[in-house]
């Protein structure tokens, strides 16, 4: 029995989504997986990217053997159903890790279309119990495992978080991500309607329009910085997980998305050894409460009252718990554990 996967083209080496998928591939390499496709490429050119991935898929499918355990990530644009059909024909066991449901954010497929695609699998891996329940509610019949968090690896051996023992004055909240208009407009709304009084924001990411910010002493942008550099240099006290154009909760497609899945963002913060601020209705809020790695809020305007009233002792408990999680994230613990459970299940059945 071989553990195998098929790599592809990724749109840019420093893209946040690319890092998440490449970290998964590095973890699989460490577990003895074989990339039966071509070496990964990193071009934003859509035509070249299409051709590179197509070549890797064809090579990979030619290299599949009966009895292989093939690990797939979903969505795998354009080729997913084709890969599944060939793999089933060759007598391969299929395990898919689901990043996102296509019928939620992207609205690219219907639930029934997606179910037909995913039902070709022998086992599915999802990030939390809410995603698992979504599959149960849709009457999926294959076993579903939960891996809980997205592991975050380091690209260099000296990537160690800043050892900070005291809260900043004022408290510093960091926000990191690709600052797409509409997705992160809440920052500008916050600046206009409820600017921070007792804390401040540091925003990591490109396309942050700092010229539109009035309270520059409270909300400042530092531009794009690779994840490793954020881990090594940030002195932030908290990491914020928030999306959309409102500070009073997260509605619309982004609210639906966070109620169902867990983004990479909180995992990046915990790798920095800092607790997380989560929307109370997000799926990730369950993890925050169970493992005491942060706080949950309904609205951003609550932070001016909440943050100054958290004692150093209370904060230290959450920080130490975040450090424990970080130690697992940097070793690929969450994916490794879930995959081995999936593999054992398929061997036993």
Describe the structure.
With 349 residues, the protein is an alpha/beta fold. The chain folds into 2 domains: 3-151 and 331-348, Glycogen Phosphorylase B (Rossmann fold); 171-329, 3-Layer(aba) Sandwich (Rossmann fold). The protein is built from 13 helices and 12 strands. Strands 2-1-3-4-5-6 form a 6-stranded parallel β-sheet, sandwiched between helices. Helix 5 links the parallel strand 5 (123-126) and strand 6 (144-146). The chain starts with a strand and ends with a helix.
What attributes does this structure have?
single chain, 349 residues, alpha/beta, Rossmann fold, 2 domains, six-stranded parallel sheet, 15% strand
Strand order of the largest sheet: 2-1-3-4-5-6
Radius of gyration: 21 Å
Q: How much strand content do the residues show? A: 15-25%
The figure for the number of domains is 2
**Structure classification:** alpha/beta
Number of strands: 12
Low-confidence stretches: none
Biggest sheet overview = 6 strands, parallel
As a percent range, the share of helical residues equals: 25-40%
Order of SSEs = EHEHEHEHEHEEHEEHEHHEHEHHH
Q: N- to C-terminal separation?
A: 15 Å
How many helices? The count is: 13
Q: For the record, what CATH class of the largest domain applies?
A: Alpha Beta
């Amino acid at each position: 029995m071989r553990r195998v996967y098929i790599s592809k083209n990724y749109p840019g080496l420093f893209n946040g989504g690319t890092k998440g998928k490449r970290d998964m591939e590095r973890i699989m390499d460490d577990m003895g997986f074989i990339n039966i496709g071509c070496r990964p490429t990193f071009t934003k050119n859509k035509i070249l990217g299409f051709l590179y991935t197509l070549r890797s898929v064809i090579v990979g499918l030619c290299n599949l053997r009966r009895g292989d355990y093939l690990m797939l990530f979903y969505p795998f644009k354009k080729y997913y159903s084709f890969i599944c059909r060939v793999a089933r024909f060759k007598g391969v066991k299929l395990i898919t890790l689901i990043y996102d449901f296509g019928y939620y954010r992207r609205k690219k497929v219907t639930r029934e279309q997606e179910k037909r695609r995913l039902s070709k699998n022998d086992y599915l891996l999802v990030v939390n119990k809410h995603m698992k329940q979504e599959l149960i509610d849709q009457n999926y019949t294959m076993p579903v495992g939960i891996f809980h968090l997205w592991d975050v690896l380091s690209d260099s051996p000296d990537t160690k978080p800043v050892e900070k023992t005291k809260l900043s004055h004022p408290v510093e909240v960091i926000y990191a991500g690709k600052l797409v208009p509409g997705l992160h407009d809440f920052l500008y709304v916050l600046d206009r309607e409820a600017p921070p009084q007792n804390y401040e924001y540091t925003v990591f990411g490109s396309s942050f329009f700092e010229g539109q910010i009035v309270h520059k002493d409270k909300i400042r942008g530092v531009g794009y910085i690779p994840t490793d550099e954020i881990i090594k240099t940030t002195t932030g006290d908290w990491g914020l997980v928030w999306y959309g154009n409102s500070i009073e909760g997260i509605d619309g497609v982004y609210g639906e998305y966070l109620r169902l899945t867990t983004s990479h963002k909180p995992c990046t913060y915990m790798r920095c050894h800092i607790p997380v601020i989560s929307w109370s209705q997000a799926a990730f809020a369950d993890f925050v409460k169970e493992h005491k790695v942060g706080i949950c809020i309904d609205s951003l305007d609550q932070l001016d009252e909440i943050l100054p009233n958290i004692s150093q002792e209370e904060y230290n408990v959450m920080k130490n718990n975040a450090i424990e999680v970080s130690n697992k994230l940097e070793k690929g613990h969450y994916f490794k554990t879930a995959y081995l459970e999936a593999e054992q299940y398929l061997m036993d059945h």
